[in-house]
Amino acid sequence: MSMIRALSAASAAALLALASMGGAAPPEGPKLDVTVTGLHSAKGQLVACLWREKPGFPSCEKSSTALRRVVPVSGETMHLSLPLPGSGRYAVTVIHDEDSNGKMKHNFIGMPAEGVGISNNPGGMPGFDKSLVDLSPGGTLTIKMRYLFG
Q: Where do the DSSP E strands lie in 65-112?
């Protein structure tokens, strides 16, 4: 047993040494370029999620089915890339997480207290089906942030 641990530790150390030598990163797969407009501050981070299936939608923090990307906010318009497994119908949600806690803040009646943006830019409380758009690798999508308060 101790020999297996020693080999595992040696393998891990070798991999770390190779990584620190500036080895080439593995090639990235197909991407979707997303432009997020209408941010009202450069505070916090964006939490963007790509949905192929409805379970958990639109709360990315509770979903294991959505692909999630978090990026720091640097201006009123942001550009980010999401991995896109292939062409198809997807929904994209974006939260302006101004307090950088990784979660959507809600007011006392459960309404979003931080900015929200959803593909197709539907009004009101959008459902999954209304948010679906046809996407292809290398494609682009623009999402407008909406703020209920402030």
A: 67-72, 78-83, 88-97
Compute the Cα dihedral for 59, 64, 67, 68 and give only its sign.
positive
Can you list the alpha helix ranges (DSSP code H) found in 21-61?
none
* CA triple 118-121-122, angle to 5 deg: 100
Phi, psi dihedrals of residue 14, rounded to the nearest 5°: -65, -40
**Fold (CATH) for 30-144:** Immunoglobulin-like (2.60.40)
Distance from C-alpha of 99 to C-alpha of 33, rounded to nearest angstrom: 25
Q: Is the torsion defined by CA of 118, 65, 104, 102 positive or negative?
A: negative
Instruction: Report the alpha-carbon distance of residue 138 to residue 140 in Å, rounded.
Output: 7
Nearest one of 57, 35, 49 to 130, comparing CA atoms: 57
The predicted-structure confidence for 81-98, as pLDDT tens digits, reads as follows 999 989 999 999 999 999
Structure tokens at 116: 């929200």
Q: Kindly report whether the global pTM for this prediction surpasses the value 0.70.
A: yes
